[in-house]
Amino acid sequence: MTDASAARDSTAQHDAEHGRAEADRYEAGIVTDFSRRMSYSSYLGLEQLLSAQHPVSTPEHHDELLFIVQHQTTELWFKLVLHELTDACSLLRENELQPALKRIARVKHIQRTLTDQWSVLATLTPTEYAQFRGFLGNSSGFQSWQYRAVEFTLGNKDARMLRVFENDASAHELLSSILNAPTLYDEFLRYLARAGFAVPASALERDVTQGYRMNEELMPVVREIYEHADEHWSEYEACEELVDLEENFQLWRFRHLKTVQRTIGMKTGTGGSSGVPFLQKALDIAFFPELYAVRTQIGAPA
Questions:
Q1: Angle at 156 (CA atoms; ends 170, 277), nearest 5 degrees
Q2: Of 136, 168, 231, 291, whose CB is crowded by the most CB atoms within 10 A?
Q3: Alpha carbon distance 174, 145 (integer Å)
């Protein structure tokens, strides 16, 4: 047999095996009639979801779809983050610490996905973005009510932010509700108090409409948990989960800043912010300051 004949036989055998493999994938029991059944597309509402991208540039710029999809998928993830954090707060109120930590663990995985997403938007060059940025008007991520709801839930509250949403009644109502509710950290501290820890009244009775600030009176409680982790393992684990949550949020913020800097440099934001300097200031915001401050105290003289 010649080399050419052997090659043909080998190719024919490969094609036959591939054909059998493809045939095996199509099983007799696979449902194909969806005239009266719910399909994958109908369950997910794909007709509505995939028709929700409406570029506004004229003529339509190729890269605007990337920009829209990036932000729409971010909002979908924010929806799930809010879903999980809201339930985590409820579970803490019911003294269900472990299920609450499961919710937080899921949020951490979502945060990693959100941070990785910036690498996709970073493929948009300054020249490409400049060709359709002017069509965005004053629309800006600053106006994301879901992002603001996440920040409020984690402790970075500012009632002035509600003015941005005065023309969106449902968003304004939801943010007002979260503004007046305890944060995730508030609920954790209340849980600790019910568990017998000497959480000070200044932490338990604080004005929850205000952004959370460092409370030195709380430090002995946090230090007790960290220095005796073997006795307070569940609480220690919860503290570290919260630290992970904040660290992931800061990584997302930093990646956001660097993507903006890479794409528009030091231009002002479309929503009126200073752009990169505005995002830089956000890196100084802490949700759970005592959980970081305790690291300086551990091992130091009492």
A1: 105
A2: 291
A3: 9
